[in-house]
Write a structure and sequence with these properties.
This protein is an alpha+beta fold. About 20% of the residues lie in helices and about 50% in strands. It has four helices and twelve strands, in the order H-E-E-E-E-E-E-H-H-E-E-H-E-E-E-E. The chain has a twelve-stranded mixed sheet. Helix 1 crosses helix 3. The longest helix is centred in the N-terminal third of the chain and has 22 residues.
Length: about 220
């Protein structure tokens, strides 16, 4: 029996971490409809993007594909694909494909990708100082609310902290808020989540038409 609130909180946190470890072993894929809300503090404005996102975890790494459909309510198709340390950003309206290598930052990049999408509790604690803020009900399921402070200074320079609402038993995020030093915030919410269901065969492929400008950074 815990003797004080701190010990009780730590025990509860370790229970969540253990559940995330178990969930990571079972996690193979997830797909969801998303809303990304970027708040810019200096002008007090929101930019909202919507679309569908896919995750797949296999031995050797994580793959992610995000298909953006609308930007502030207007059709604005874009594709962001991450696979084996490479990021591809395709903008069909201007016929441009941009490729970037994660390189030495691959581990850091994948730690962001797996924030509540198949990442283990062990990996979470390796990259973040984790605080359990309690539990809530979201979309009919119980989620743990975790506050994460980056351990690496270069990540801390980008985000002072991140709050996630994660379903420990399946290792799935329902909501994330990224807080930037400037006061800007990016909020991601996920709905219609499909867990460990077969993904479309071509979801992690980009096939740009002839004439597409390919920029490598």
């Amino acid at each position: 029996m815990a003797q004080d609130g701190t010990a009780a909180s730590n025990a509860d946190l370790q229970k969540v971490i253990g559940e995330l470890n178990a969930a990571a072993v079972k996690f193979s894929s997830a797909q969801a409809d998303f809303t990304w809300d970027q708040f810019t503090a200096v002008v007090q404005e929101h930019e909202t993007q919507t679309g569908t996102i896919y995750f797949e975890r296999k031995t050797g790494g994580t793959r992610m594909a995000a298909y953006l459909k609308q930007d502030n309510g207007k059709d604005a198709p874009k594709t962001v694909l991450y696979d084996h340390g490479e990021v591809n950003f395709y903008e069909p309206t201007i016929k441009q494909l941009t490729t970037m290598k994660a390189g030495a930052n691959r581990g850091q990049f994948e730690s962001f990708l797996t924030l509540g999408f198949g990442g283990s509790g062990k990996d979470l604690e390796a990259n973040w100082k984790v605080t359990l803020l309690g539990s809530e009900t979201m979309d009919g399921v119980t989620v743990a609310k975790l506050d994460l402070v980056p351990k690496e200074q270069k990540v801390l320079d980008m985000f002072t902290h991140v709050t996630i609402w994660v379903e420990p038993s399946r290792g799935i995020s329902h909501k994330q808020i990224f807080y930037q030093p400037s006061g800007d915030m990016r909020t991601a919410t996920y709905k219609n989540i499909r867990y460990n269901t077969p993904l479309p065969a071509d979801v992690f492929k980009i096939n740009p038409p002839p004439g597409t400008n390919h920029v490598v950074k």
